[in-house]
Design a protein that fits this description.
By secondary structure, the chain is mainly alpha-helical. The protein has 2 domains: about 110 residues, no CATH class; about 120 residues, Helix Hairpins (Orthogonal Bundle). It is built from 6 helices and 4 strands, in the order ααααββαββα. A 4-stranded mixed β-sheet has the order 2-1-4-3. The longest helix has about 80 residues. It is rod-shaped, with a radius of gyration of 39 Å. It starts with 9 loop residues before the first helix and ends with a helix. The relative contact order is 0.15.
């Protein structure tokens, strides 16, 4: 396990930072290959849950409408029974007033039947519409589920392909971070977080910073190459190192990682 070296020279501190940057950049590349797939998988999973809830709600509404249809059919059957009863009673009435009263009851039950039949037609129309919507939702669900399977398969293939390498790199990143001075590690992590490409330590190439590509004054470039202090690029905020040191540390780390991955 790497340990922070007491009284480390600026060059040793820069080498520790470079080693960490090389590893973290490789992790970034692996994760970049996965790209937006994890987010896409999550989005599709959420969409499936949403569609399933919609399907469940529509089925519940259709169920409720069918219950209401059954209730209205019962109303019709009850009304038919009462009409028959009242008509039978009309044959045995003693006066016109009783006959008229039964006629009004029959008329009322006929209106109840008509209203119930009207409601049944309305409920059936609603069910037909909801079944149409349900069919569309079920088609959508099948489509999204198929897309999710494809995305998950793609993600699993990419993850499996790089699983060993990523595991080794994460372990080595932890070890490399332990060798970096706490103050510098905090700065490194802060810079990495704000940098689009995750580069906190960059080499000076052709007289310009690898972070901003803005020309660096000759004297500053000489100071960087001397490796006597930690120098920050005033434009990008990144830690600057000379190209030779960056190349040397990258080769060294690549050799170490290659040996670990082939073990």
């Amino acid at each position: 396990m790497a340990k922070k070296k007491k009284n480390a020279t600026p060059e040793e501190k820069l080498r520790a930072l470079l080693a960490l940057q090389v590893i973290d950049t490789k992790i970034d590349i692996i994760r970049e290959v996965r790209g937006e797939l994890p987010l896409e998988v999550k989005y599709l999973e959420d969409e499936i849950e949403g569609v399933k809830l919609r399907v469940e709600k529509i089925n519940s509404e259709i169920h409720d409408l069918n219950i209401q249809i059954t209730d209205k059919k019962n109303v019709i059957e009850l009304a038919k029974g009462l009409i028959e009863k009242y008509k039978s009673q009309q044959d045995n009435v003693r006066n016109n007033r009783e006959y008229d009263a039964l006629s009004k009851e029959i008329e009322f039950q006929e209106l109840e039947m008509q209203l119930a039949e009207k409601r049944i037609k309305e409920y059936k129309a609603k069910i037909a519409h909801k079944q149409e919507v349900l069919g569309g939702s079920q088609d959508k669900l099948a489509e999204v589920e198929e897309a999710l399977v494809a995305k998950k398969t793609e993600l699993e293939e990419i993850t499996a392909e790089n699983a060993k390498e990523e595991k080794v790199l994460i372990e080595q990143s932890t070890i490399a971070a332990e060798a970096v001075e706490d103050r510098l590690l905090k700065a490194y992590n802060r810079i990495r977080k704000s940098a689009v490409n995750g580069l906190a330590v960059v080499p000076v190439e052709r007289g310009a910073s690898g972070g901003s590509y803005i020309k660096i004054p000759p004297q500053r470039e000489i100071d960087i190459a001397a490796r006597k202090k930690i120098i920050i690029d005033e434009h990008s905020g990144r830690i600057l190192v000379d190209a030779a040191l960056a190349e040397e540390e990258e080769k060294k780390m690549n050799k170490k990682l290659s040996k670990l991955l082939s073990a």
